[in-house]
Amino acid sequence: MKDRLAAALKSSRADYTEIRVERTWSSAVTFRGRRLETATVSEDQGGFVRALNHGCGWGIASFTSLDALPAMVARAHELSRAVRLDKPISLADTVPQVADAALDLDGDVRGISLAEKKRLIEAYNGAMLAVSDAVVDTQAIYRDEVSEVWYVNSEGTALALLRPEVAISGTAIARRNGTIEKGLESIGLRKGWRSVHGLENTFSVVARRAVDLLDAPRVQGGAYPVILDNELAGVFVHEAFGHLSEADFVYENPQAREMMTLGRRFGKPVLNVGDNGAAKGLRGTLPFDDEGTPTQDTPLIKGGILVGRLHSRETAAALGERPTGNARAISFRHPPIVRMTNTYIAPGPTGRTFADLIKDVKLGVYACGAFGGQTMLENFSFTAAWGHMIRDGQIAELVKDVVLAGNLFQTLDRIDHIAGDFTWNQMGGGCGKGGQSPLPVTEGAPHVRIEEILVGGDV
Amino acid sequence: MIDRLLEAARSSTDAGGADALWRREERTAIAFESGRLKTAGITEEAGINLRVVSGGRMGVAGTTAATPDLAELVARARASAELGEHLDLAFPVTASLPRVPTFFDRAVNASLDQLIALGRGLAERLAREGCQVNVAIEREVGETAVGNSAGARGGYPATGVGVTAEIIRIAADDVLMIYDQYVGGDLPTDGDLDALVRSIETRLESALTIVSPPEGALPVVFTPAGLSAIVLPLEQALSGKTVLQGSSPLAERIGAQAFDTRLSITDDPLAPGGPASRPLDDECVPSARTALVERGIVRGFVYDLETAARAKARSTGHGRRGVFGKPMIRYTNLIVGEASRDVGAQHAAPLLGGGLIADIQDGLIVDDLIGVGQGNVIGGGFSHPVGLAYRVQRGEITGRVKDAAVAGNVYDLLKRIGGFGSDGRWLGSRWSPSLRLEGVSVARR
């Protein structure tokens, strides 16, 4: 394959050319209620070519027929030539990389029968159904893949990568008369078959939570002190700050550059945020991004001050900064764009516990688990899976529909305490941006306290 | 390809039958970033999806390989069926198909330069000091062929055009994002583009002043874009799948007055030029209109072949399949509105508020909510921070509000609708006017 790509690269007349070819083997088993929905094995393959000429824009071609590769190299060059630019695009320098990088398959999923995968997820689905008659519907999904990726560019980079992934998720719907509630948990790992065993209890807990929420009141709307559990704090940092630090948001927009000037204070000295694509064994981990740049740990906020951002080669050149290895594409169908990898809030002082955070909260909300989050840059939402009221420093009644309304400039600055109990939360699903979803990412955080934030609900 | 595949399936399986879909798509996409053309790209994709019933069990397999090994594909579908559930699946026989235009010469023939000129024109009209303008144009030309072992065959060529425009205005620490789109089978007309520009301008002008949000149970006008949070729970509840699973709140309510007597919801795959119009679905079922809610009364649900077979119902022609996986229920063009109104051709709504705000003393117009789809959607409850919303005081828009959240339950709120706007439009494949709902909870910091 490498020779084939090298030959195609040689034929290109463009100033810069890159080619990515992927072959992805995947299997999936889904249960819905008591019934198996599907059990499938699939093979997807295709290629992507991107060309750039001086004084011109990007020309892009993606395709499923690899026989078309030479023709697509020519097409990408022509498309680039069709885009005339007054201000040329430049790419920050990187050292050409030549590597064969295989991540640990941890029990190659390709060697496990579909029947075995069915047995595993059927047991997890059964664990949800067994919780209560009130559990009227479930969805349990097992999904795995092994993706072989070849990447070459005209600067001499030539990579052969092997990327495994395994994900399982459980959704339980509980119902009593007109009231319907949902429990959701997902786990996504850049690992293999051995990593997803022994999770029956996780699935039971999901269903139990959906049932418990049937009797819980909706949270009363208003501004509260809120403590986020590790999982929701991870979603929070992804939405609240991760997307803002993607440099494609600022590099073409002078007002955005000003707003996001390095050195600006966004939080109190307790706040430290970063993105680490090189962390060991996480779902967002990659040795190289989809431009062949090695990944790294990039500090974004240090002591409350903005110190860095995430880059592709193009955004780094435009801002005179260094590429960070954050140009990622979800598949050969898409160009690489600036994305997060493993984004984290660093732990607070060792020994600071959840109990320290809650003890002086008179009336507040403990927001737990995550149904999701979304950002419109300044304003963002993050939706807890469930919550508890905090009364006089103690966890009180269960509440539901806990949706937090964040504001970049106010919410980060109101983080006043960060616990020392950091964990990575390897959720399934993924991040969506620019029509590319779901991208595997990981978030990590300890318990985090926000002095005051708006919680939606009846008033 | 379909015939050869079905033949390969027939000769290697028992008499259970099979169906298949082949689809080829070619997309041309251009993107203007900050008013400058930055990228031009093409995508060529083809794939085939096979479903077999073997030993009374269903299995599926798909491939994007250019010259697929049909025997291998059949073997993979059979292996999938070995684990599958029993299913009494009856494949539809040959039927005459309704005529609906899906292929537009103007869209196919538009050259790259023409698409670039269209985008440049739009970017220039939207350009203004202190604003970043992003415009993207995508043109898709596709071909679909479906067939089954009962002899049904169908297929159609299709074109699709998407134009999206976005303004990002950053003033000090205020970030304002305004977005609109045209999605249709044909290229947009000059009128469509005018409406798109005016729609964004109207939203922008009214947003320049920031006012404090109100608080309490208030009248809220949901624009066609803002309505997503209200429509999503209904889309889930009106799917034959959730009905079958026992999780739909509307499951036992066929014939019941569940909503305001003026509310009707129809799925219409035959809407001329509709973004999701087509003569048949991906399971060879001819397209037809499906009444879901008529004058507030629940009339029906949408089904694909499998869900219909399990629910002892008939497929409404809502099977949609990709290259991988099995067919699933998918709506086509969803028409939400007042029973008496006709569906128009409007793709963008320059009017903000739909003519529904004159008698609002204090309330909101909600054009965009954040986090839609991420809560307990099937239950009908929603709670979202506003992404783009305007305050209405004494019948007039007084400015944009930030840091507010709206919440409610769609089943309560839709029992009494305060009014349907005169601004009905397409938004993707949904057509609706603005809807005014009373007593929506608005919380603020």
- The span between the termini of chain B is 60 Å
The largest sheet of chain B has its strands arranged as: 3-2-1-4-5-6
Shape of chain A: globular
Give the overall form of chain B: globular
Strand content of chain A: 35-45%
Beta content of chain B comes to 35-45%
| Rg of chain B (CA only) | 24 Å
**Residue share in helices of chain B?**
10-25%
Radius of gyration of chain A: 23 Å
Structural class of chain B: alpha+beta
Q: List the total number of helices of chain A.
A: 9
Largest sheet composition of chain A = 9 strands, mixed
Q: What is the number of E strands of chain A? A: 26
Coarse structural class of chain A:
alpha+beta
Element pattern of chain B in H and E: HEEEHHHEEEHEHHEEEHEEEEEEEHEEEE
Please report the two chains with the greatest interface, counting residues with C-beta closer than 8 angstroms to the partner's C-beta: A-B, 95 and 85 residues
Give the total of domains of chain A: 2
What's the pLDDT, averaged over the residues of chain B?
95
Can you walk me through this structure?
The complex is a heterodimer of chains A (459) and B (445). Chain A has two domains: 2-213, PmbA/TldD superfamily (PmbA/TldD fold, 2-Layer Sandwich); 222-455, no CATH class. Helix content of chain A is 19%, strand content 39%. Chain A is built from nine helices and 26 strands. In chain A, strands 8, 15, 16, 17, 18, 19, 20, 21 and 26 form a nine-stranded mixed beta sheet that branches. In chain A, strands 1, 2, 3, 4, 5, 6 and 7 form a seven-stranded mixed beta sheet that branches. In chain A, strand 23 (431-433) and strand 24 form a beta hairpin. Chain B has nine helices and 21 strands. In chain B, the strands form four sheets. Chain B has a six-stranded antiparallel beta sheet. In chain B, strands 10-9-8-13-20-19 form a six-stranded mixed beta sheet, with no helix packed on it. A five-stranded mixed β-barrel of chain B has the order 7-14-15-17-21. Chain B is globular. Classes of the chains: A alpha+beta (459), B alpha+beta (445). The interface between A and B is large, with 95 and 85 residues. Strand 3 of chain A pairs parallel with strand 2 of chain B, so a sheet runs across the interface.
